[in-house]
Structures are given as structure tokens and as C-alpha cells.
Amino acid sequence: MVKLRLKRCGRKQRAIYRIVAIDVRSRREGRDLRRVGFYDPIKNKTYSNVPAILDFLEKGAQPTRTVHDIFKKAELFK
């Protein structure tokens, strides 16, 4: 099963998260299937590759609760 979840990057105390499509059995820093966006909580910016996200959602990928909230804020689910 594939999930859309956050993958931590950046340096200490300055986290930036990539939104990735990843296998459920992989760890947080594991190999991802595809990068579909990023989220910067410090600047509160989000970039989303909407066609790729919708493609994964149509194929049955499940977003985590946090990623779902980020997509709601970005008005991806209308």
C-alpha cells in the first residue's frame, strides 16, 4: 500500500518536509516512489504537484493525517 507522507530534510532546528509517495513498510527516511511537493512549517509555504498527487490518490494512495491537513489548507480538496 502506498501513502502520501512527510519526509524530513533540512538542518537541525530548521526542518523542511518533502511530501512523498512511499510504501507503507518503509521508514520515514526510506526510499520514496516519487516526490510530490514540499512543506516549510517555518515560512508556512507549501508546494504541491497537483497532477501527481491526484494520480496517486486515484490509484488508492492514502494521505497521512498531517498531509491531509496540509492539502486542506492548500485547498487541494474542494
Automatic annotation (TrEMBL):
GO annotations of cellular component type: chloroplast; mitochondrion; small ribosomal subunit
One GO-annotated biological process of the protein: mitochondrial translation
Key words of the record: Chloroplast, Plastid, Ribonucleoprotein, Ribosomal protein
Family annotation (InterPro entries): Ribosomal_bS16, Ribosomal_bS16_CS, Ribosomal_bS16_dom_sf
GO molecular function: structural constituent of ribosome
Chief place of localization: plastid
Pfam families referenced in this protein's UniProt entry, alphabetically: Ribosomal_S16
Localization per Swiss-Prot or TrEMBL: Plastid, Chloroplast
Keyword Methyltransferase: no
Gene3D superfamilies: 3.30.1320.10
PANTHER family: 30S RIBOSOMAL PROTEIN S16, SMALL RIBOSOMAL SUBUNIT PROTEIN BS16M
Protein family membership: Belongs to the bacterial ribosomal protein bS16 family.
Name of the protein in question: Small ribosomal subunit protein bS16c
Record gene name: rps16
